[in-house]
Amino acid sequence: MHIRLRLPADLDACVEALAQVQATDRYPVDWPSDPGGWLTPSDLTSAWVAVEDGAVLGHVGLTRDAEIVRLFVTPAARGRGLAAHLLDAVRAATPGPLKLEVSSEGTTAIALYERTGWRHTGTTRGRWLNAAGEPALLHHYTSP
Fold first, then answer.
1. What is the pTM (predicted TM-score) of this model?
2. Residue 74 DSSP code
3. CATH of the domain at 35
4. Model confidence at 99, in pLDDT bands (50, 70, 90)?
5. CA atoms of 118 and 76, how far apart (whole Å)
6. How many angstroms separate the most distant Cα atoms in the chain?
7. Is 63 exposed, middle or buried (0-12, 13-18, 19+ CB in 10 A)?
8. Number of domains into which the chain is organized
9. Rounded Cα gap, residues 139 and 35, in angstroms
10. pLDDT surpasses 90 at 131
11. First to last CA, the chain
């Protein structure tokens, strides 16, 4: 497994990986009409992929305001520490603190962040709806 910067040629494989995640976890809750665009928000500065044997196993992005976005690992590749490795790649490439938000439904992700030293800084309601159709409860974290 290798983590590297995402290339434009990786986008289709990233969408395929995201489809696997969405089918298993409902992340994102609603499948976007343009999944490639969803993976490439306008404020994205960089993105990384975890790749093995030519397949994208995971993805993470970073925005201009140092926020981690679009972090996911395919179901078949879980349990290998890929999410932590992806976060480490972003931290190694980015000076200063990072931030992220995670829905309260993401209990596995929350456990990862807390286990790896991310600090909970607050909780708010999102502008999007969770799987129950209510405004998502978002937990905010900063990097260790």
1. 0.94
2. -
3. 3.40.630.30
4. very high
5. 25
6. 40
7. middle
8. 1
9. 24
10. no
11. 25
